[in-house]
Amino acid sequence: MRFTDKVAVVTGANSGIGRATAVRLLAEGATVYAADLRHTEPWPESGAGQLHTVELDVADPNAPERLADRLREEAGGVDVLANVAGVLHIAPFLEVQRGDWDRVLAVNLTGVFFLSQAVARIMVERGTEGRIVNVSSVHAVVSEPNAAPYTATKGGLEAMTRTLASELAPHGITVNCVRPGATRTGMSAPIYTPQIVRSLQAKIPLGKIAPPEWVASAICYLASDEACYTTGASLDVDGGYAMDGSLPGTAYS
């Protein structure tokens, strides 16, 4: 019950890591504003917290202020923002179009910036020692061929996180990243062919692809008071993928 009497916003909440995060926060007592383009999946009826669904496109320039107005009116403030919404465009670098690039940046980076700004303003107004948690990717530090716009946004997100953490620290607001590795979500499902799954299982030291709930646990830790002395950090939740330099199936003798 770490989030009793807390108000949390989760983007990308209709599925995957966003859905798992919202469900976990609800179970631990939060009032959750679950935001997504649309809500197509039923929500669990049980939970200690209260659920409010929000139809929101994080790429819409007007969305942050609309959400901020609703939070001020209905909740009186906000304690947690989990920026989970994201999009992935697969194409060779030489074939990426301007529209593809613009859409990925609008959702994965620009939208995160301005939604964080709108929520942080409420935190500062209310004197709330809030928590902002961004969802990066192992591919912020490890290349992912055919996903240049995506990797650019995740690298930028981590750099931005550190700067926001520095600026908001005087207000007692922490800003951190979770850096997931291979995770089974609606976004990853089309590219996780049997061959890709076998390769990932061979590459990942712990040998598993994560369900969204494992990543949600890390997000909720950084969103809780247990992480009150952590800011500007990126927490790997990748089964050891990024740190491992071994050669699968071989060893030096």
UniProtKB/TrEMBL annotation:
Keywords: Oxidoreductase
Top-rank lineage group of the source organism: Bacteria
UniProt similarity note: Belongs to the short-chain dehydrogenases/reductases (SDR) family.
InterPro entries named among the record's database cross-references: KR_dom (IPR057326), NAD(P)-bd_dom_sf (IPR036291), Sc_DH/Rdtase_CS (IPR020904), SDR_fam (IPR002347)
Protein name: SDR family oxidoreductase
Short name of any one Pfam family annotated for the protein: adh_short_C2
Domain Ketoreductase as annotated: residue spans: 6-181
Keyword DNA repair: no
